[in-house]
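Render this sequence as a predicted structure.
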Amino acid sequence: MEGEDLTETRRRGAFRGFEPARVPSPSFVVDRAAIQHNLDILAEVMNASGASIILALKGFSMFALADQISAVLKGTTASSVHEARLGQEEFGGEVHVYAPAFTEDEMAQLLAFANHIVFNSFSQWQLHRSAALRAAAARPGQLRFGIRVNPQHSEGATAIYDPCAPYSRMGVVKEEFRPDALEGISGLHFHTLCEQGAEPLERTLKAVLEQFGPYLRNMEWINLGGGHHITKDDYNRQLLIDLIIGLREEYGLKVYLEPGEAIAIHTGVLVSTVLDLPKNGMNLAILDTSATCHMPDVLEMPYRPEIWGAGNPGEHEYLYRLGGQTCLAGDVIGDFSFPEAIRTGQRLVFDDMSHYTMVKTTTFNGIPLPSICTYDSRDGSYEVIREFGYEDFKGRLS
């Protein structure tokens, strides 16, 4: 499609020359050139600000691209032992970990290789403090500990993704902060944003500094969390750089950011095939991909994905309600209009399907996981990285 039918991904130059028929269906396809475009922007921000940017594996964990990503970013951040191991084994660099709570067994594993461990509460810090300090003494200069704080300042529009919503379990609020329990703590962490710009960060940072700023003068580092849409075209990167420089100069801190979507936004697609075209009061289309299994944020967020060449209802002549193969009645991707009638066997390409999509797939109903592929719009090369079958489904069950 040309002109106005182009998605934002292709407006940015990704997937030039891509032919959907050349990859398995369904499959996630990531453009290496688009990943590099984002990494180049992040490198510029790090160079200008002095911050360290690490990859949030919860948002994007395609370790087939680890060499490319690790050449630019400083490490990874994880939300579990398994994610942390993946970061250490495949990506290298610093390994940061945060979770609402750790078991003693999990902590014992993490203390052996992690570099930053952030605790969600002072009770968790007290529970693990002795073991943590012993491990830090055995690994001098390699292991640091922090506390996550909750500034109770909401910027997100969707409650399920707002860590500062009322009664949130994420982080320590000002009233529960314990200055007397900071021995061994060298940094503070906050995470309040979700796919947002620098202006919400500026407002959030103001709230953080008003509540916790005095304690930062005795700290070594601060982690500004994720949710920063740094590589989006309209993101105010100069404001971000200024905020980071201000923190470094005022408090003498090392500054970390841990985005996931900023690395992978507009870098990937989900290729699917039309299997059937029934009718029930309107045109329906059954695909070999599923909202429930392959793009659950469509139902959870909720949000409406874009499809190459398609539009909103009423935008084009032919309207279809797209759904998946599962038995869930609500496995509906949405209503899309097309300039021409679609046909059985036709490939449809869902746009911007790298971040927070590949990491959330399931095998509900035994629906196979999409294959994982790469494309490189710089030279037109394709590679099938992984295909999934029955054993992948069976291996998750008893």
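Summary. The longest helix spans residues 198-216. The first strand starts at residue 27 and ends at 31.
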